[in-house]
Amino acid sequence: MKQLPYLLLVFISFLACKERSTPEPAVPVKGTIAQNAMVVSAREEASKIGIEILKKGGNAFDAMVATEMALAVAYPYAGNLGGGGFMVYRTQYGEIGALDYREKAPLAAHRDMYLDSAGNYLSEQSKVGGLAVGVPGTVAGIFAVHQKLGTLPMEELLRPVIELAREGYVVTEKQQGRFEQYAAVFEKVNEEASLYTLSQKAGDTIKNEALAATLERIAMKGRSEFYQGETAKKLVAFLQSKNGIITMEDLDAYEAQWREPVIFAYKDLNVISMSPPSSGGVCLAQIMKMVEPYPLREYGPNSTKSIQVIAEAERRAYADRSYYLGDPDFVQIPIDTLISETYSNARMDTFSFDAATPSTEVNYGNLEMAEAAMTESMETTHYSIVDAFGNAIAVTTTLNGAYGSKLYAKELGFFLNNEMDDFSAKPGEPNMFGLIGGEANAIAPQKRMLSSMTPTLIEKEGEFWMSVGTPGGSTIITSVLQTILNVYEHDMTMQEAVNAPRFHHQWLPDIVMFEPDSFSEETLDSLSQKGYSIDVNNAPVIGKVDAILRLPDGSLEGGADRRGDDTAVGY
Ligand code: DON
Q1: CA of residue 400 to ligand 1 center, whole Å
Q2: Helix, strand, coil % in the chain, rounded to nearest 5
Q3: pLDDT at residue 280 above 90?
Q4: Run of H or E residues at 216
Q5: Do residues 391 and 61 make contact, with C-beta atoms less than 8 angstroms apart?
Q6: Which end of the chain is more exposed for a tag (fewer CB within 10 A), N or C?
Q7: Residue 27's pLDDT band (cuts 50, 70, 90)
Q8: DSSP element (H, E) containing 529
Q9: Alpha carbons 77 and 167: distance in angstroms, whole number
């Protein structure tokens, strides 16, 4: 509904343009503008709770804690206590860093845990139910952020969230559809009715008393409540009753890790993005380095030539991803080489505008098996925050699939992730995003599964310029990339850049996915003629980007994705 005025404006200007012989230049579409601070997230309630924390003097890190937890309440699709995520930050003093609160494989996990005795991959087991669950990192994440960079007491940050859980949040139209789609699955997987197996209609209020009580215990007792206390005991008992292998020892051993972000230059931008165990920053850097020498501005956004250059760079980066990337605590990753100019230029040597480079010629991998890509509706969520002091953060957090493993710990009020599916369960077998992996991302006890999440901050002329990120599994990296290029190369506003249609290539399967009804037949035909396999049917949306841009006058523009219920709130 929020987009209605914008759509009307576009429609009216379209009609107006048709009548005039010399069309006026299009009126730029701007997102929410604020002078001081902004939060953009997947839910209005979460953005508002974040902004309230900022208004009362908290900083972006305080707002992170409250927003993250508010999403766990009002956006159970992806917001979570039972999942994990990544945060990239830049303080008001220009210090940068990254937090990894990604889930870990349990101690009892092993490399072939999803294979039967004949070596066949039991792919459901890494996706649904107890065995799919990685050791959750989110609660450790918020406490690590709070301890290092927060300023207000934890109880104060959690108070409005507990209130939201207790007083309830209002179901949106989009949420109703998702609850309808999954209610029966929840009942089947959990073998019992719960809050989320009830029929939830748009406009209904959902109160989650169990979650309010869990959050209250965490507010009172701290981090240990989740990893050693009553919550830990209940969680382990629940998971073990569902064929899970997570123990008290696993929870006790979990630690979030501060990491060095991946930092690279694109023209005069300084891009700061998430390092392994996410592939996000490395792949984003590789793609941006590969496209940098081409005059994308001249080619125009979503033109055949731009799509070719970007898709070919994506193909090459995702091929490398599948081979080189994994948990840096377990594997050596040649990051500097992968993101270097020399390597990037050499990688594009085989590219020609005349014809697509077949993925079989770019690297190894099993084509047939990769065709099973992207069958599940999926979710993760990203939010961006800038405070009035000048601190900026980009956070992406996830349960992996929609509602994760579908396991709902009724007594605790939250869903559990199915992040184990992000491992490469068997070399050459695609995961739910069609991604293929190998040795570097094989399962091992306490290892973190490779991610595509790409929370990213950008500096221009030494100042904060943009915070950006998105859900979308394997399409995350390409959605972040295209949003940045739309602003930087094609002079779009933040909101226009987020609204713009997106496409995606990930090496295998060897197809370019396009959002439907968004690209001209002419463009798609010319790409087909050059040998690209076009898919306009299987990606109703690609990414759901939330972003903040600092404008030349110092104000902030929010870009909240029209594809979801995403909302920018500022002051
Ligand atoms: O970490 C990853 O790359 C995936 N678990 C993210 C999942 C995701 O984005 C699903 N949302 N659309």
Answers
A1: 5
A2: 40, 20, 40
A3: yes
A4: helix 209-221
A5: yes
A6: N
A7: confident
A8: helix 521-529
A9: 19
